[in-house]
Amino acid sequence: MARYIVRRVLQMVLAFFGTTLLVYWLMFAASGDPIAALAGERPLSESTRAALIQEFHLDQPFLVQYAYYMKGLLTLDLGVNTSGREIGELVASAWPWTLRLALLAFVFVVVAGIALGVIAGTRRGGAFDNTTLVLTLVVISIPVFVIGQVLALVGARYDLFPTNVVGDDSLAALIVPALVLGSLSLATTVRLARTSVTENLRADYVRTARAKGLIHRRIVGVHVLRNSLIPVITFLGVELGSLMGGAIVTEKIFNVPGIGFQLYKAISIEDGPTVVTIVSLLVIVYLVMNLIVDVLYGVLDPRIRYE
Amino acid sequence: MGRHSAPEADDAAAAQTGEPLLQVDDLHVEFRTGDGVAHVINGVSFDLRAGETLAVLGESGSGKSVTAQAVMGILDTPPGHVTRGAIRFHGEDMLRMSGTRRRQIRGKRIAMIFQDALSALNPVFTVGWQITETLRKREGMSKKDADERAVELMDLVRIPAARDRLKSFPHQFSGGMRQRVMIAMSLAERPEIIIADEPTTALDVTVQAQIMDLLGDLRRELGTALILITHDMGVVADVADRIAVMYAGRIVEHADVHSLYRNPAHPYTIGLLDSIPRLDDKGKRLRTIPGLPPNLTAIPSGCPFHPRCPFAQDICVTRVPPNMDLGGGRRSECHFADRIVTGELTRPDQEDE
Amino acid sequence: MSEAAIAEAAAEAGANTRSLAADAWRDLRRNPVFWVSAVIIALLVTMAVVPRLFTSTDPHSCRLRDSLLPPSGEHWFGTNLQGCDIYARIVYGSRASLEVGFLSVAFVAVIAVILGMIAGYYGGWSDALIARVTDIVLGIPLLLGAIVILSSIELPSVWPVVLALGLLGWTTATRIVRSSVISAKQQDYVQAARMLGANNRRIMGRHIAPNAMAPVIVILTITLGQFIAVEATLSFLGIGVKGNTITWGKDIAAATARVTTSLGPVLFPSAFLALTVLAFIMLGDAVREAFDPKLR
């Protein structure tokens, strides 16, 4: 088990450096003119230009620039953005919003996703199952921003729920955004849980459990569920990372002042440093979640341990 | 037993134990699928007495496993349906019991061992957890007591270092040890009957012998009745008291093990025995039964075995053979059973080789 | 095995491949989901190639006094804020979506087939290297990565989006190619062809590629739908297809500027977008069902 974790951590560290290097390269090197990438199309004074070169070590070779950037990222010195504001502050004030939104969406995905998936899986071919399959397919096909935008429009027009979270500190205001953010994950989770339960219900160990004289509820609720949840939980763990990344669309639509909203703002004002920093942070969250999931997978599925 | 002639011995045994532990009477099972109705079991009857071992022998698709599942009450419904017959346990028809009552028998008084222990055991729970599950949930034992009992059971089935292995997972055992875990699990609540469905098929030959020895010993030590389901004639000779040979969902021959091996009374049994490789037959060509087991959605008319039977005559195509009592507890469903068993009729192709 | 037997086995395997495809096609033909999605996709492709067949209205000729008209005989879906015909804009907007979808999937297919075949067929260090690179790219969520790439390219065409999706979206398809190649490689007839001395290129081209194709086609079809959704999302965020090109995502974003007045400008392009994505996902599902007998 320990060796497994160590191996995974090493893999993650490798992926972390590779990924951030890629992001950094895409942002600055690939664009040809790093200054343009940083400052967008706005005219720059000579002094700003010099400050930017200084800040990002643009007079140094690419790998050195990257090393400086990583040093800043790892020491939580996130630097300043193009308008001179500390990116660290920006992130610190936005982070709680995204975390709350993502966690709320996550709870919703976990509870509703597993419950609906298990019910559909145990009633395969029934009306509930077929309805679930069609509905989830529809949700998967409609891009999240469409769902969010239409809900926001309808909500605002008929005054059903708050569609503008800025200035509303209550958790209730986040419910609809969380539903929107979680919709795709929910649909995927339901389908995954359903397939997993269906497959496990056909497994030989279910026959053994029946031959032991266990009641049906225990066979499904303990034997089948414990096995079915392995792929579902793996998927869900990765999804928590993606939910934070996916928050950009939801936060823009509902004006949630979180990380995604800041990212959107940075994109629209072409604030390069903020974009790279926020994306890198989200990538880190995503990678860490993947690592946790991998370890969790080893705990959940005893067969994986000695691989 | 030796003093008596066979039929009297039968009566004596019945008198000693009263009624049989398990009586299967005219059992019929159908599988209803999109492709039609498969008649999987077509009137199976047999008795099992306390402490006795009955081997149920047949090719795959002969209905032997389905019979076992019907007795256990774990038939997959749909597609499987018991359409007729009775399965009496201590005289009470289990097919007419409430689900709850049936479940109290299942696993506790009649337990089952499956073929492939790797897939039959739940991969994510420790073997200790699985062995003790019914003890904790049904017998209300504490976890500690149940674990103690599990160690006893694992000792009983000769799993070395039982206490240390309680926390191991099924995949950490070898095939033979896994099957022992399976057996230990079935013994947990001291059942009166164990049904073993091809318990050694998935194992290596040497391990097969060990598991069969274990089953034999356990039966002697614990006095548990055993229904041994297998397609392997070589496996049953040492362990079984009686053998029921199944073909196309019927028991075509039913006899004590010695008579059946020495003097089979059904052409199908003869075919099965001829297909066992023997050391003393070196150089001779192994005989196989020609043709394939019948399609259960369209079972041949008359005697279902007639398309493959070397003895077949016109009557076999038109009339279902009667269940012929040959005395000594022997029965055969062949029109010529009496003449085959006396040696009057021999296999027509016998002289060819 | 004699050479004749090997040749026979190889021929039989080829026949099996063909009959698998034939079986799958027979199955597909009977599946209404396949026909519905195929017809939708065919219509959309026609719309993208020859928009004039569907509308004679110029999507760029907008009159502000026609702003936000309700649906009518003249404007089937009404008009948007700028007074443009929504239906005409949807028809002309289909081109950007489908171009991005097909081009980026073609890009992904090329990367996936090359890398997947190398990794699966040769194994060893090339496999390990490709696996690590895959891990790295998988570490970047598609939308975020695309945002980073696109925020540094200012080219007004679909190509930057194609590049971004292609560069980031090849991982799953590559893994699938790799594992199909590995399982195809272990088939007896491939071993036989190798024993007969067929060279690597021939083995990969003639024996492995046809067998590995089905799962790849399935995943690429579904990916196509996803890419169209991501393109629309990026355009909605203002960094997708830049310039004057009409896209559904941009029109949906533009229509949300005045939220409370009219739902039409948002709903109609959204419905077309969702229908397009749905059609590709359903098509992929139908093909998968046809090729995977286990699911039947």
UniProtKB/TrEMBL annotation, chain A:
How far does the signal peptide extend, from start to end residue?
Answer: none
GO biological-process terms attached to the record: transmembrane transport
Record keywords, A-Z: Cell membrane, Membrane, Transmembrane, Transmembrane helix, Transport
Where is it located? Cell membrane
The keyword Transit peptide is annotated on this UniProt entry: no
Primary localization class, coarse: membrane
Among Pfam families, the record links this protein to:
BPD_transp_1 (PF00528), BPD_transp_1_N (PF19300)
Segments traversing the membrane: 12-30, 101-121, 133-158, 170-193, 228-249, 278-300
Q: How does it sit in the membrane?
A: Multi-pass membrane protein
Domain ABC transmembrane type-1 positions: 95-297
Mind telling me which GO cellular component terms the entry cites? Answer: plasma membrane
Q: Which Gene3D superfamilies match?
A: MetI-like (1.10.3720.10)
Entry keyword annotation includes NADP: no
Q: Which family does it belong to?
A: Belongs to the binding-protein-dependent transport system permease family.
Q: What is this protein called?
A: Oligopeptide transport system permease protein
What does the organism's lineage look like at the top? Bacteria, Bacillati, Actinomycetota, Actinomycetes, Glycomycetales
From TrEMBL, chain B:
Which terms are listed as keywords in the entry?
A: ATP-binding, Cell membrane, Membrane, Nucleotide-binding, Transport
Question: Pfam families in the record, alphabetically?
Answer: ABC_tran (PF00005), oligo_HPY (PF08352)
What membrane topology term does the record carry?
Answer: Peripheral membrane protein
Entry's Gene Ontology cellular component terms: plasma membrane
Tell me the ranges covered by the ABC transporter domain, including all copies.
Answer: 22-273
Q: Which GO terms describe its molecular function?
A: ATP binding; ATP hydrolysis activity
**Keyword ATP-binding attributed:** yes
Q: Which GO terms describe its biological process?
A: peptide transport
Q: Which SMART domains match?
A: AAA
Q: Where is the protein found, in the record's own terms?
A: Cell membrane
Enumerate the InterPro entries for this protein.
Answer: AAA+_ATPase, ABC_Ni/Peptide_Import, ABC_transporter-like_ATP-bd, ABC_transporter-like_CS, Oligopep_ABC_C, P-loop_NTPase
Family stated for the protein in its record: Belongs to the ABC transporter superfamily.
List the protein's name. Answer: Peptide/nickel transport system ATP-binding protein/oligopeptide transport system ATP-binding protein
Q: Which organism is it from?
A: Stackebrandtia albiflava
TrEMBL record, chain C:
Q: What keywords is this UniProt entry annotated with?
A: Cell membrane, Membrane, Transmembrane, Transmembrane helix, Transport
Superkingdom is Bacteria
Gene Ontology cellular component?
A: plasma membrane
* Topology class, membrane: Multi-pass membrane protein
Keyword Transmembrane helix listed: yes
Q: Which family does it belong to?
A: Belongs to the binding-protein-dependent transport system permease family.
Name this protein carries in UniProt: Peptide/nickel transport system permease protein/oligopeptide transport system permease protein
